[in-house]
Specification:
The protein is an alpha/beta fold. It is about 20% helix and about 25% strand.
């Protein structure tokens, strides 16, 4: 059976401010995950395994950090003569008046409605790039095309305390009867996980209608007007996803997702042979664990050099832990150096950070975060942010 003509639009232009220092100089989808992967690898790997090869990725904030990683889409077999990966950046468009920077996810799609119509897809898949999960998008597309819906929202259950961060839905017999975007008091724990399949004609017409009314102000997110309109018209259905899904949009969630990887039977395995997470390869040598080092329950990426103590940690390529240093319950990104006698606990250290000898970072309390290429010369308590943001 031929795959329906499908266009995937990856929304990768958000500022990702809730990740704080991690997105100060990089795009949110370019944030490292699981050692040597990046967040954007998740959706691009899902596209590859789903057999969907027409993928458009929208960029906006800190685009260079993401473009360097994408490398034309080769790692996901998207570097094709026809189709493949197309990166869309903000542009001037004097003919339609839709140029410039977008204000939200609906605004992004509205600014590209003419391009999408020219592609003429049977199904339009719109996904965010800040969560970890394995999902066959093509199965969702087929289920959508077999329904009478204008949108199929992939849904999942979350911790009730976190539901207010998402679009909360009510469902009857597969049809979405109510949608509330980031409500102050959620009516349940069933939320959309930012994977949508649209019937292109109706949603593009709706975007143009809303965009014309918005004028120079532009549109906001899909959850503000587009999705509620489709739900109110009875044109929305759900596709329930019961597998592992974790939004990495906050520092606490980012750290917790890495701790998930350290379980004896992790709920998400990037190395799963049936659905591996794919990324741009590197040229680092094998990780080195020196005589006398202690490593327990951790992930070590290529290029790591460990002579000290590492317990329940995820280490990205090039991390150095000197003899006499100890790192516990932490996530260390590329090329971090922990000098002899230093102690790091419950912390996330960004690329190029150096913790000087005999310094202490973090503790048993809230997570500590150290920004890119910072040098830690004094002790940092639990919950610290270093360097502090301007004005703090």
């Amino acid at each position: 059976m031929a795959t329906p003509r499908t266009l995937v639009v990856v929304l990768a232009g958000g500022a990702g401010s809730r990740l704080e220092l991690l997105t100060h100089s990089r795009a949110k989808p370019a944030v490292p995950y699981g050692g040597h992967y990046r967040l954007v690898d998740v959706v691009l790997s899902n596209c590859h395994h789903s057999g969907l090869s027409d993928v458009w990725l929208t960029q906006q904030t800190n685009p260079v950090s993401l473009s360097d990683h994408l490398n034309g889409g080769r790692a996901w077999d998207l570097d094709r003569t026809r189709g493949g990966l197309l990166v869309l950046a903000p542009r001037e468009d004097k003919d339609t008046g839709k140029g410039g920077f977008a204000q939200g996810t609906a605004d992004v799609l509205w600014r590209h409605t003419e391009l999408i119509r020219s592609f003429d897809p049977e199904a339009l898949v719109v996904v965010s790039s800040d969560a970890v999960y394995a999902l066959d998008y093509e199965q969702v597309v087929r289920a959508h095309l077999d329904s009478d819906a204008d949108v199929t929202m992939v849904t999942t259950r979350v911790d009730p305390d976190d539901a207010s961060r998402y679009g909360v839905v009510q469902v009857e017999d597969g049809r979405i009867t109510d949608y509330a975007y980031k409500p102050d008091e959620p009516a349940g724990d069933l939320v959309t996980n930012e994977v949508f399949v649209f019937t292109p004609g109706p949603v593009l017409d709706l975007l143009d209608e809303l965009g014309e009314k918005a004028g120079d102000d532009g549109l906001e997110d899909l959850g503000d007007a587009v999705l509620p309109r489709l739900v109110d018209a009875g044109r929305a259905r759900e596709h329930r996803f019961d597998g592992y899904w974790r939004d990495l949009g906050t520092i606490d969630a980012y750290w917790a997702a890495h701790m998930d990887l350290l379980e004896d039977e992790p709920p998400f395995d990037p190395g799963d042979s049936a659905w591996p997470l794919m990324t741009v390869g590197g040229d680092d040598a094998a990780a080195r664990v020196r005589r006398g080092a202690q490593v327990e329950g951790s992930l070590l990426s290529p290029g790591c050099d460990v002579a000290g103590v590492v317990r329940r940690c995820v280490l990205s390529p090039g991390v150095v832990v000197e003899a006499g240093a100890e790192v516990v319950d932490s996530v260390l990104l590329h090329d971090v150096v922990i000098r002899s006698g230093a102690h790091v606990c419950r912390a996330v250290l960004d690329q190029g950070v150096e913790v000087e000898a005999d310094r202490t970072v973090g503790g048993d309390g809230d997570l500590t975060l150290v920004g890119v290429r910072a040098t830690v010369t004094t002790d940092l308590p639990s919950g610290a942010r270093f360097p502090e943001a301007d004005g703090d």
